[in-house]
């Protein structure tokens, strides 16, 4: 074999080895990324999860409000990426307790029974106003000494939380908002920022974020601002009755 052919052979072999090494490195990075994502969502390969939503009160049959349906579709993509399987269940059917499988609970806590129960049991520092006889103030959040009342179509709030009720149990994700458009906004925030949230709070950590949806009548769920990380206040025991939170 002359020198030229030898050089070509060596160069080709180096290219093959380099390509194989690059592919292996990219595969390893992708696998680690998927492992982190599966840990964060509590969705290992082949696992089961449940998506819990409420019924559309304007429909005679069981149907899901449009924005809630789109939020569930966003979650379904995460479930598929993790190699898991999802069940969709209405909020007012008997479901098992939490921790056995990952749960995504999406809706309005004044109408969504299971979501309201999760808030009461897992986020005792959060209060949600049911509204007066005319519906005024319905859905107003009180947390950390402040209240957050919506201005429909202009300013609306939603709580996005990852909670672990029992040690070594699967997480419960909550998107508890004042209107369906806020539920969709919270889910989009979760899906888009899952890597950053996992780095900040850990793949097994708890958090509760208060988000503000701005001018949804013009922008839908697209303009979202983080108001505060209210984890500490939300996890704290409820304040004694008679104490009035400041605005």
Report on this structure.
With 247 residues, the chain is of the alpha/beta class. 38% of the residues lie in helices and 22% in strands. The protein has seven helices and ten strands. Strands 2-1-3-8-7-9-10 form a seven-stranded mixed β-sheet, with helices on both faces. A three-stranded antiparallel β-sheet has the order 4-5-6, with no helix packed on it. Strand 7 and strand 8 form a beta hairpin. The model is unreliable at 242-247 (pLDDT under 50). This is Secreted protein.
Give a brief rundown of this model.
With 247 residues, this protein is α/β, with parallel strands linked by helices.
Instruction: Please give the order of strands in the largest beta sheet.
Output: 2-1-3-8-7-9-10
Radius of gyration: 23 Å
Helix content: 25-40%
Number of helices: 7
Strand runs, count:
10
**Helix/strand class:** alpha/beta
- Overall geometry: elongated
Low-confidence stretches: 242-247
Secondary-structure element order, as H and E?
A: HEHEEHEEEEEHHEHEH
Topology:
Elements: H1 3-41, E1 48-53, H2 66-81, E2 85-90, E3 102-107, H3 113-122, E4 127-128, E5 141-143, E6 146-148, E7 155-163, E8 172-177, H4 180-192, H5 194-201, E9 207-214, H6 216-219, E10 224-229, H7 231-235
Parallel strand pairs: 1-2, 1-3, 3-8
Antiparallel strand pairs: 4-5, 5-6, 7-8, 7-9, 9-10
Helix pairs in contact: 2-4
Protein name: Secreted protein
């Amino acid at each position: 074999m002359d020198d030229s052919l030898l050089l070509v052979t060596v160069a080709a072999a180096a290219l093959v080895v380099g390509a194989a090494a690059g592919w292996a490195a990219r595969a390893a990075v992708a696998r680690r990324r998927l492992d982190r994502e599966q840990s964060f969502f509590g969705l290992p390969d082949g696992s089961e999860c449940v998506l819990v939503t409420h019924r559309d009160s304007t429909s005679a049959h069981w149907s899901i409000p449009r924005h809630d349906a789109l939020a569930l579709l966003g979650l379904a993509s995460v479930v598929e990426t993790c190699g898991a399987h999802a069940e969709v269940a209405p909020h007012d059917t008997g479901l098992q307790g939490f921790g056995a499988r990952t749960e995504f609970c999406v809706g309005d806590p004044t109408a969504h029974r299971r979501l309201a129960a999760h808030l009461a049991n897992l986020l005792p520092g959060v209060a949600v106003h049911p509204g007066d006889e005319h519906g005024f103030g319905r859905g107003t959040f009180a947390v950390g000494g402040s209240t957050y009342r919506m201005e429909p179509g202009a300013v609306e709030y939603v709580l996005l939380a990852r909670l672990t009720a029992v040690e070594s149990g699967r997480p419960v994700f909550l998107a508890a908002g004042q209107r369906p458009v806020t539920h969709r906004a919270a889910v989009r925030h979760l899906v888009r920022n899952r890597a950053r949230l996992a780095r900040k709070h850990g793949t097994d950590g708890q958090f509760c974020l208060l988000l503000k949806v701005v001018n949804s009548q013009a922008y839908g769920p697209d303009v979202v601002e983080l108001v505060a990380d209210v984890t500490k206040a939300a996890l704290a025991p409820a304040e004694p009755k008679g104490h009035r939170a400041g605005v």
